[in-house]
Amino acid sequence: MPQASDLGYLLHKHPDRAQSVDTSVGTAHVFWPESSPERATVALLLEVDPIALVRGKGGRDSGFSLAQYVNDRPYAATSMLAVALSKVFRTAMTGRCDARPDLVRQPLPLEVVIPALPSRGGPALVQQLFGPLGWTVSAEPVPLDETVPAWGMSPYCQVRLTGDVVLADALTHLYVLIPVLDDTKHYWVSDDEVDKLLRAGGTWLAGHPERELITRRYLAHQRSLVQSAVGRLAEVDDADPDQLDNAVVDDTVSDIVMRTPLAVLRTRAVVDALTAEGARTVVDLGCGEGALLRELIGDVALTRVLGVDVSHRALRLATKRLRLDRMPDSQRARLELAQSSATYRDDRLAGFDALVLMEVIEHLDLPRLPALVTSVFGRARPTSVLVTTPNVEHNVRYERLEAGSKRHADHRFEWTRDEFRAWAGDVAAEHGYTVRHLPIGFDDAEVGPPTQLAVFRRVAT
């Protein structure tokens, strides 16, 4: 059981000293009112510099002396607090802690207190946003003036969140939802905000019951940005945008499983299988925009990762979303991107320990599938091959998916469990591999899991 003072390792902030960090909106101060094995409290205080906000980074001034004090710049303190959270706890938010890696994904008994949080929706909205993420929520409205009860309540709430939550997840919840509650930002919202939202909410946003409200408010109700975000959420969860509400709640399934998007469960299953296979070098064939690559490059056990896709646009987006230009040299040296087709011979795919085809085969016309098998199993011949594909039997659990239709408009086919097993068995026998099958997502007793995974291993000769 971790000690409370271990929080300092995860936050990368030493409990014995206060720290000050310059941000674009002022100075953020981090200090520890208490730190012991039983209880530790870290406080974040943001000291906003309104003059610096008006002057901007370039230090330019407008034409009159009062311009630094009289202006129409919105003073959105919650948005500024989110900026400070990201700057001060950036590494902790990504879930990285070299000193205590055992704690990174471990739920901790956390308590978050925000003395005054504006909520355009009142206390009920605070519950709607934080409750589904595993928090016990207390949100009490703050009076406009305690000495004048007739004035009523202010739009502010005193918020207390408690729960056993992974620290990195807790930080992303706050980073996204604090400005969402206020429904305003202190800066112009551009295309980059979509990337920020999906990066921060990648493990929980797609499965949140209020994801549409969160997306609209975070992106300042800009229709084009909202449409882009909704489309990308649909892509990572393998559903059309108008089918994002297809999930069916089953009381027999744990809340954690039901709240976790299928895309996240799929990625975790692939990474776990690669670890079990002992892979050190991996090809992500059909890598798309880099969802799996982001997880692979974060695994220091992998010495070489190659992302391959037929789409130049997808690789360009992967470059942007993986932030290759800002990636540490140690990570960048292990990652390569290449344009190629899964159905053509490419010698660059040879010599790897493992090759992953995650949600790829169903996008090929069935007559082209043998060419992929020859390219991967006959020529590249990695030690292990991992293939995931939808289980069409599970489609009946998606209430808004019409009978007989596929989960995604570009799917050329979707197999039953028996069909997938038959194909995988034939491939393994023909090319000298063994194969085992694993479920991804809730393994329904009647229709099986939503996604099926086949792990091929080459037979030693």
Short description:
With 461 residues, the chain is α/β, with parallel strands linked by helices. It has 16 helices and 13 strands.
Distance between the amino and carboxyl termini = 46 Å
Structural class: alpha/beta
Characterize the overall form: elongated
Mean pLDDT: 85
Order of helices and strands: HEEEHHHEHEEHHHHHHEHEHHEEHEHEE
Question: Percent of residues in beta strands?
Answer: 15-25%
Largest sheet: 7 strands, mixed
* Low-pLDDT ranges: 57-62, 70-74, 239-259
From the alpha-carbon coordinates, what is the Rg to the nearest angstrom? Answer: 25 Å
Number of H/I helices = 16
Number of strands: 13
Helical content (DSSP H or I, runs of 4+): 25-40%
Strand order of the largest sheet: 9-8-7-10-11-13-12
Model description:
The structure is a single chain. This protein has about 450 residues and is α/β, with parallel strands linked by helices. It contains 16 helices and 13 strands. The protein has helices at about 5-10, 50-55, 75-90, 90-95, 120-130, 165-180, 190-200, 210-220, 225-235, 255-260, 260-275, 290-295, 310-320, 330, 370-380, 415-430; strands at about 20-25, 25-35, 40-50, 110-120, 135-145, 155-165, 280-285, 305-310, 335-340, 355-360, 385-390, 435-440, 450-460. The chain has a 7-stranded mixed beta sheet, sandwiched between helices. Strands 1-2-3 form a 3-stranded antiparallel beta sheet. The longest helix has 16 residues, at about 165-180. It is elongated and about 80 Å long. The chain starts with 6 loop residues before the first helix and ends with a strand. Residues about 55-60, about 70-75 and about 240-260 have low confidence and may be disordered.
